């Protein structure tokens, strides 16, 4: 029970819903992609959040064999189950709070937001 409480505290902590929604929408995402998609989050805070989600078994971290080395994050099976439970929250935030990670193009995001009204 205490472990489930830790998961809930982490998932609903600052930046966590944004982070989980982003990974849920893109399936796999790199560290720099996250930094660009979530303006205002520092690299240090992002590292802490990602590490905590990994420690809880929600995220998988993969180091790619590239120069320079790149890291990608995706959900574990457990993480995907938690994210699916949060899907209604992600959709609500997408349409009401402008969290439109699905499209990089600001003009396309504006059109998508207008469709949601």
Element layout with pairings:
Elements: H1 2-11, H2 16-26, E1 28-30, H3 31-37, H4 43-55, E2 59-64, E3 70-75, H5 77-85, H6 87-96, H7 106-116
Antiparallel strand pairs: 1-3, 2-3
Brief description of this entry?
The protein has one domain (2-86): Arc Repressor Mutant, subunit A, CATH 1.10.10.10.
Helix content: 55-70%
Q: What value does the average pLDDT take?
A: 75
Tell me the CATH topology: Arc Repressor Mutant, subunit A
Spell out the helices and strands N to C: HHEHHEEHHH
Q: Note the gap between the termini.
A: 40 Å
Q: Architecture, according to CATH?
A: Orthogonal Bundle
Number of helices in the DSSP assignment: 7
* Oligomeric organization of the protein chains: single chain
**DSSP strand count:** 3
Shape descriptor reads globular
| SS strand fraction | 5-15%
Give the spatial strand order of the biggest sheet.
1-3-2
Return the domain count: 1
Care to describe what's here?
It is a single chain. The protein has 117 residues and is of the alpha+beta class. The protein has one domain (2-86): Orthogonal Bundle (Arc Repressor Mutant, subunit A). Helices cover 61% and strands 13% of the residues. It contains 7 helices and 3 strands, in the order ααβααββααα. It has helices at residues 2-11, 16-26, 31-37, 43-55, 77-85, 87-96, 106-116, and strands spanning 28-30, 59-64, 70-75. It has a 3-stranded antiparallel β-sheet with strand order 1-3-2. A hairpin with a 5-residue loop joins β2 (59-64) and β3 (70-75). The longest helix has 13 residues, at 43-55. The chain is globular, with a radius of gyration of 15 Å. It starts with a helix and ends with a helix. Mean pLDDT is 75; it is low at 102-117.
């Amino acid at each position: 029970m205490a472990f489930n409480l830790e998961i809930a505290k982490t998932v609903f902590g600052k930046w966590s819903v944004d982070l989980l929604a982003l990974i849920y929408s893109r399936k796999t995402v790199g560290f720099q992609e996250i930094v660009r998609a979530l303006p205002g989050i520092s690299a240090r805070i992002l590292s802490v959040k990602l590490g905590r989600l990994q420690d809880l078994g929600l995220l998988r971290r993969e180091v790619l064999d590239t120069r320079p080395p790149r890291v990608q994050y995706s959900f574990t099976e457990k993480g995907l189950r938690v994210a699916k439970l949060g899907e209604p929250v992600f959709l609500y935030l997408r349409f009401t709070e402008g969290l439109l990670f699905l499209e990089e193009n600001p003009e396309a995001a504006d059109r998508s937001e207008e469709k949601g009204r």
